[in-house]
Design a protein that fits this description.
The protein is of the alpha+beta class and 763 residues long. 45% of the residues lie in helices and 8% in strands. A hairpin with a 6-residue loop joins β4 and β5.
Amino acid sequence: MDFYDYLEIQPTGNNAFMIESERVRMVNSVEDIENINRKIVKLGEQFNKPVVATCDVHFLDPEDEVYRRIIMAGKGFKDADDQAPLYLRTTEEMFAEFAYLGSEKAMEVVVTNTNKIADMIETISPVRPDKCAPVIEDSDKTLTDICYNKAKEMYGEPLPEIVEARLKRELNSIITNGFAVMYIIAQKLVWKSVEDGYLVGSRGSVGSSFVATMSGITEVNPLSPHYYCKKCHYNDFYSDDVKAYSGRAGVDMPDKNCPVCGEPLVKDGFDIPFETFLGFKGDKEPDIDLNFSGEYQSKAHKYTEVIFGAGQTYRAGTIGTLADKTAYGYIKNYYEERGIKKRGCEINRIVGGCTGIRRSTGQHPGGIVVLPVGEDINSFTPVQHPANDMTTDTVTTHYDYHSIDHNLLKLDILGHDDPTMIRMLQDLTGLDPVTIPLDDKGVMSLFQNTEALGITPDMIGGTKLGCLGIPEFGTEFAMQMLIDAGPTAFSDLVRISGLSHGTDVWLGNAQTLIQEGKATISTAICTRDDIMVYLIQMGVESSLAFTIMESVRKGKGLKPEWEEAMKAANVPDWYIWSCKKIKYMFPKAHAAAYVMMAWRIAYCKINYPLAFYAAFFSIRASGFSYEIMCQGREHLEAVMADYKKRSDSLSQKEQGTLKDMKLVQEMYARGFEFLPIDIFKAHSRNFQIMDGKIMPSLSSIDGLGEKAADAIVEAAKDGPFLSKDDFRMRTKVSKTVIELMSSLDLFGDIPESNQISLFDFAI
């Protein structure tokens, strides 16, 4: 008994399972459980150990047991319907539970001893409170030198006042708050990726930081629109012509030659305030999210080990929760199996109670947690294999990374298709994507009509725009936004991108305001930055404007006193109404970075069409089918007609196929064709350009997965296939797929079998 500080007893209902258990032979009734509790109380008196009445709590209220019952049933527990009363009891309920001990003893175990134990326990936290950022020697100086060297390379010496002031202000905030290390880490990762031939896209608000631009972390230049000369470093930030583009994008300005040396001027700047990133005090925790190419992501993860050393980096853990669709399935199956009918409103109520319950651990898609040298990871968090899968080499933090992001640095090294696609386009065309002009009129026209593609809408099923297959803008939803908003400039596309990624920002909000004539695409709230900038311009105090922006963009709305401050500054009622509707908002820097990537891909769609289609079908097509799409335009459009007849009942896979069919239809309309697959020349996964046509990949054949396609490519290296039997033996491809390939005439004259028939010798 000396081992125990105190003894516990629980309500009889908590241990009622013992009555039916074959393993507990001495308990056959509730009275037996009461007697065990009485014995524990006596042991406490005998050995001078306090006895405390506790309760194993799994839900708050008694009626909440239905959620646990259904979830346990969904997971296959046979005793799911035998729920113990594991709810949080009140003091009065606990008195009633232990009345059989007598009122005096019940008071002692329920109240007196409970408080005594609580007073003995000091406040503890499962996570350390201190911040433990990794150290990179001379990171402050390194970051400062990188930024100033780049700024002088672009703008010359002395630096323009606006550039110098922005650099000084940002570097002071970053360095004094200890964020320089994070910038240097991001810089190293991006520079390494670019060195290896893969562009990196920035996410979130990091593009609001001019230091991030100068250190090469983002391509987005947050300064106000301006001109500068690469040759003589002439610059113009202040002329009336330039100021007219305030709040927009520098690339929208007209082309000009340098008045000093005659060279074409560079047009730059997106007018994004730094405060969106780090706040007005510069102490908001920075979050630098980066989109690496999906095929480069693993290399970027490994490079963190090179930077910090082996054993200093861990994959960030996540905790998966029960989704509403899964919960609905559990509930539906539960009642159907028991022949119970429930009204829809009751099912929806139960779904609400089950949704969000934690069910498993996993790993963040791109999160890396960095452990400072000399620290033990177990002092911050336990580590584990995700979902307790002991067969994997991956080790993650056991705690959700949000629980430890206050003291350990987390890097978001995400995989994305845009950089992968741009790399493939570069390989196919030899074009440096960075040199693609962001003011090309042909590219802009894709978001207005189809003329740049040399086709009309009636040739592609009525699609009015040329942006099918363009990231950000290729969906029906995005194209309708484009039609409604009528963009005329790059900055409009940035705003539309912001709208498309927000929640309750466009539908029932900005769209309505534009339709009613209360706002335009230039004045509506499209990105979170818009709110702060506009409110400051209207006279709202800057820190309050920032606070309002942060609340609105998270869907937390407006406090009454904020509304009063906005009305006092003559903010229109429609603007306040719009703020109240918003549930989530994109930062302008994120939207700008996405549109820059999308624009480059759009440029290739016009100028390098075969490369564009080959890259898209290789990387982004989710439902491409050789059988459906590569047998000519007539066959394709016949299948599309069938799909449209069944539009209300299409499966998710068929919806993906229809999306890809629309782009194939556009390709045919532009006069381009597919080559039949040659099993000796086709790539397993990538589409290829041959003889002015596109040869699909082997994996585009229905039923032929990527591994099987890889096996065919490897087998083909060993020489011709003697027969279909030989093909099947060497590639391990299923008979069904071989029959499909035969029907598509992909085997040519290859015989069925290696066996020789006498008829082969007949004359």
